[in-house]
């Protein structure tokens, strides 16, 4: 992976989580705006880039099945992560209990998202993953802070989470260079799973974060900015 791609994936997640140490007051409204922007961007790149590319291969008739698998997989993961991957903290955790379910499901989620990057054609996907890992990492760090973990431990777990998407990429490269076969043989199927995950996350962000499903002016601006950035990348990419 090019160094800048690794840096974007790693540091967006790590710095997004580390921002918890700088927050001295309730920033939930700002977090919701960031979520709205990232959700709209994720949804737009999924529709503009990922879905058309996934259906461009010879196995296009099977892609819908893998999209459904990804959608259902995300529902399953959220039974353990409590929706942290889209920046939501539904429960308050007390004491010094390690949130195993949340940590494992988030790491698996990030690992799967990193695997299609082996194709090396999707800068939009890199930015999409990086953007939605910012609020996810912030929410994860918030849970560790609520559980009274020390700062050093929180940083260590943030590093673990931040490294998972790049790790998914490197594992995918290893598979493509080994006996399992080239990345082209399974790229579109993995992309289908990621599309299903992205569709669930982005739509959940856009609807669940709105009271009574009503979008106020600030959120509408954030949504339009997210879609606008995706459209700029779409047209500048020659589509």
Throw out a few tags for this protein:
239 residues, mainly alpha, 0% strand
Description:
The chain is mainly α. It contains eight helices and no strands. It has helices spanning about 5-20, 30-55, 60-80, 100-115, 125-145, 150-175, 185-210, 215-235. Helix 2 (about 30-55) packs antiparallel against helix 5 (about 125-145), helix 2 (about 30-55) runs parallel beside helix 8 and helix 4 packs parallel to helix 6. The chain is globular, with a radius of gyration of 17 Å. The relative contact order is 0.22.
Largest β sheet strand count, sense and barrel closure: none
Please identify the oligomeric state.
Answer: single chain
Average pLDDT level:
79
Alpha carbon gyration radius: 17 Å
Which segments are poorly predicted (pLDDT under 50) over 5 or more consecutive residues?
A: none
Shape, principal axes of CA atoms: globular
Termini Cα gap: 24 Å
Number of strands: 0
Percent helix range: over 70%
Instruction: Note the run of SSEs as H and E.
Output: HHHHHHHH
Q: Helix/strand/pairing class, anyone?
A: mainly alpha
> How many helices in DSSP terms?
8
What is the strand content? under 5%
At a glance:
This protein has 239 residues and is mainly α.
List the helices and strands and how they pair.
Blueprint: H1 3-18, H2 28-54, H3 60-81, H4 100-114, H5 123-146, H6 151-176, H7 187-208, H8 217-236
Helix pairs in contact: 1-5, 1-6, 2-5, 2-7, 2-8, 3-4, 3-7, 4-5, 4-6, 5-6
